[in-house]
Amino acid sequence: MRYQRAPRAGSAAALATLCGALFPVAANAADQQLDPIVVTATRQATRANELTSDVSVITREEINAAGQSTLEQLLSRQAGIQYTANGGPGTNSGVIIRGASSNQSIVLIDGQRIGSATTGSAALARIPLDQIDRIEILRGPASSLYGADAIGGVIQIFTRKGEGPTRLNASTGYGTYGTTDTTVGVSGGTDLVSYSVQAGYLDTGSFNAIHNKSDINYNPDDDGYRNSNLSANFSVRPAAGQEIGVNLLASDGSNQYDSNDFSAVGADKNYTNDQLLESYSIYSRNRLNQVWTSTLRLGTSTDASKGYAGNIREYTIRTDMDQASWQNDIVLPIGEALLAVEYTKQKVSGSTDYTVTERTIRSLLGGWNASIEKHRLQFNLRRDDNSQFGDETTGSASYGYQFTPDWRAHLSYGTAFRAPTFNELYFPPERFLLRR
């Protein structure tokens, strides 16, 4: 079950039973000789057959074979996930995991949280598939690992990495509505360094999002979209167990849409939304001894939009999210422990005058997971101190039993909460009334 309470952050609890029958360890396990390594479910590299969570992994090979053109469409092919969109390519869209709304699940890129602090959602429509190496989907409450808003689950996107001899890749295509899609990149790596740079450009004339001519918002023009994007990853390993690296993803796009002005005059205007999505981070992963690995990560993400009616700018809105985390993985005689601290600062700016424009979240979290013969166990506890709402504690516990290499049953319980967005707290209601 899920619930929210106001005015403090809401809470949710989910109980997953045996589901009436056993289920596969991972959707892809039967097709692979080895179970994939998954990070999102425990925040530690763990084989899928040792997890007690409902996790799916989408590999680069599956992305190529899927035939989908957008990230939302690709995700909607997974069990328990649906998506909504307001129109054609690049328009506002959201992903629904297990019935939770789009602002009740979180999105990570290479460990960095992204999204708008005003709407509470991430701009999935602006993340090109060509930039993605793999996707991990964690279903169910995960605030005990990732904090506020992880009620429905977590989607973590890993951008392309390099390994082996230097490789060049390039592709281009042309399709319906005058669509062109081009990408080019280089990647490679040795025992000392690895690198990858990918760049892409998409342009489409698209179609008219409103077909009903009797609709007061009908505009006969096509609602096109263009996007330019870049990802880069570089890491160096000066010694065994020591790694320093940087991750980058930037996507800049513009989409046309039909009127949000509820009048015949407004329907004749050409409305455009320009949106910039960025995520940058630097990390240092160090094996301090045989049982202790430390990972320090610093980064920032940006979600910035500008709206135009013809040549007149109607609004600007921007979210900047500074993030820092220090995670310690400790191998114990039985299982592995997780101890971490996190700091997040969210700041909003733009044409809307919010009463409060920033907040900070300081977090402490711990966990333990283990595989003991056929038994699988995981426990997590997290404390979030939000400068607006005070403290919130979440926890989770799960147990699984491995009947065969391919079949396992598990029982899990977890709590989660959602923090109100800046729009829900401070957006001036009179502004909405004036625009109507």
Automatic annotation (TrEMBL):
It is found in: Cell outer membrane. Residues 189-427 form the TonB-dependent receptor-like beta-barrel domain. Its main location: membrane. It holds the Pfam family Plug. Keywords: Cell outer membrane, Ion transport, Membrane, Receptor, Signal, TonB box, Transmembrane, Transmembrane beta strand, Transport. PROSITE patterns: TONB_DEPENDENT_REC_3. The keyword Membrane applies. Residues 1-29 form the signal peptide. It is a multi-pass membrane protein. It comes from the Bacteria. Residues 49-154 form the TonB-dependent receptor plug domain. PANTHER family: COLICIN I RECEPTOR-RELATED, TONB-DEPENDENT OUTER MEMBRANE RECEPTOR. Belongs to the TonB-dependent receptor family. This is TonB-dependent receptor. It comes from Candidatus Accumulibacter phosphatis.
